[in-house]
């Protein structure tokens, strides 16, 4: 079934005819005994493929042409997700019931498609009111539509693909004042009311806001309530699964509920039935995430088996839950939470029984704990490095220690505190204290471990062939065990193969003889990553985000966008970079160096190159951060050069001992790699360019155009001397400065230079090898 869904997602529908022909050919040539299997599996895959195409057709977009024009339309729709407010913006999905180009002809078009809506808020009263909106409410509003943004940097979050897998093709924006919302009853709204009531109860029980936010996520699945720093620490150490409602929560809650039912005298079989209905309500209460639904389904089937005295294989229950969920929504197959939940559960079902036969002299509870931890880590590893490029080498040890403690203390006592609070708050004092203290003692060493910057934490984006090999390894493991290959030498061989796969995941031989230069799309700013084979990494600037303090406290964002944290850091992680040999701070402007603040805690640094002029306030703050880490701060003089290997040479061209300041004091470097020359110019302007020409410039193959293509730079004098074959311009989409200037573009066109622009092409990658060079653009020309 999954093969049919995946093929339909990525191939032309003609594959269905091909699959039919191939299956018929196989049936004709293979022995009669196996024909029914081939026919059955082929038919299932083809039917799954047809189902996927039908599902996609039902979820096609009617308003996408309107969104391409960024046009405003009047919409009537139903709120189809929880309303999440962050500062002065609220976001949620709505299902359109009718729409029109103006309010009078609003009912002209009928539709049932979803859009991702963003509502701007102007006051605290509006913020308080919109938090009362619930699923099922009907809204009428003028909405300006647009297309969701695609990924603009390699392996970065693709918002458009994310929404597409939610059945959403367009986004919309409106203001609170223009929206007319009519509440309406829905089952979802009732459960959300109960969830909000539980969240308020937790806030009253746990006075510390950080602890309260953590417990709301742990007990109710409200992940957006967790402190961003705490959430980041859990992610870095591989503990994020604890904050997601999963099998651990379902098992604990259902067991506690069953125990209570039996204590009050309810017969065991009836208790099983009541617990099934309780589980359904619990899954709805905690938001019905993929992992919660999967756990609830499997738990309910397990309880039904107990009621009827039947036994089912765990793999059959797992497969039934998978098929049912994919029949409801096949797009879930591409959701990260869905993938991790089902993959790890299958891994536990398959590998834990085999693992228990190793080290048989160790107590069974220790073997079980270790087997569960290692099996989960083994299976989740490829998913984590593919989606997040993050896997801590101590993740297995941290999970081995922390997960049982949280399962025994914080989680059960948290639920007990909430239940006891219904009777009297005083009864919850002891459970609250136990939960709070256990979290305090757990988080203290975890933050210390995170600050250690352990090696092999960031992993390069895996290749398809590695994913195939690793999957084959996981498939072969249980088969070989059943065939009897579990002697000591077999286990040692398996371990060696596993280590080789881990080494291969680091891609030790990738790009050894190449220089890779990535001009990141950081909006209106500069950030360039230069990778010299597998030896050296240079980071030239890191962009920056202009941020103004919120006018009022309620307008503060939970985790504001910051280009260093949200663009540069994810890219470096996706390249598996953990040490940056040289940081080049071209000059002190925010749009060049502001993002470095967020990067300092995450990497080791060799040295920092600065222009040697009196630092700006921001530049001084960042330099002090580096100095606290013991990183040397250096500068240079025109004519200085250094080599990073055969055929790879750097030259410092500017500034020297002069009176230049501001943009004209930008560091200018020239890289010669395998006889190809690249000139990096920072934000240098007319006077600085004139000085460069006087000092003796030569022609270059690639010019990083200065100052985002401003007409104060890239003078005819400079361009005549450098005569670049290719020019790269870093500028923000629809930036307010009008960069790049039409004059600069005209000069480059007159020279015959090929122009790449981050505002048009997203991130731009130049790869130089001894054989030549080639370019990659994140967004291709259309």
TrEMBL record:
One of its GO terms (cellular component) is plasma membrane. The keyword Membrane applies. Its main location: membrane. Residues 524-733 form the Metallo-beta-lactamase domain. It is found in: Cell membrane. It catalyses: 3',5'-cyclic UMP + H2O = UMP + H(+); 3',5'-cyclic CMP + H2O = CMP + H(+). GO terms for biological process: establishment of competence for transformation. SUPFAM superfamilies: Metallo-hydrolase/oxidoreductase. InterPro entries: ComA-like_MBL, ComEC_N, Competence_ComEC/Rec2, Competence_DNA_uptake, DUF4131, Metallo-B-lactamas, RibonucZ/Hydroxyglut_hydro. Keywords: Cell membrane, Membrane, Transmembrane, Transmembrane helix. Pfam families: Competence, DUF4131, Lactamase_B. SMART domains: Lactamase_B. The keyword S-adenosyl-L-methionine does not apply. Signal peptide: none annotated. The chain crosses the membrane at residues 12-30, 37-55, 239-261, 270-293, 333-352, 364-388, 394-418, 425-444, 464-484, 491-509. It comes from the Bacteria. PANTHER family: DNA INTERNALIZATION/COMPETENCE PROTEIN COMEC/REC2, RECOMBINATION PROTEIN 2. NCBIfam families: ComEC_N-term (TIGR00360), ComEC_Rec2 (TIGR00361). This is DNA internalization-related competence protein ComEC/Rec2.
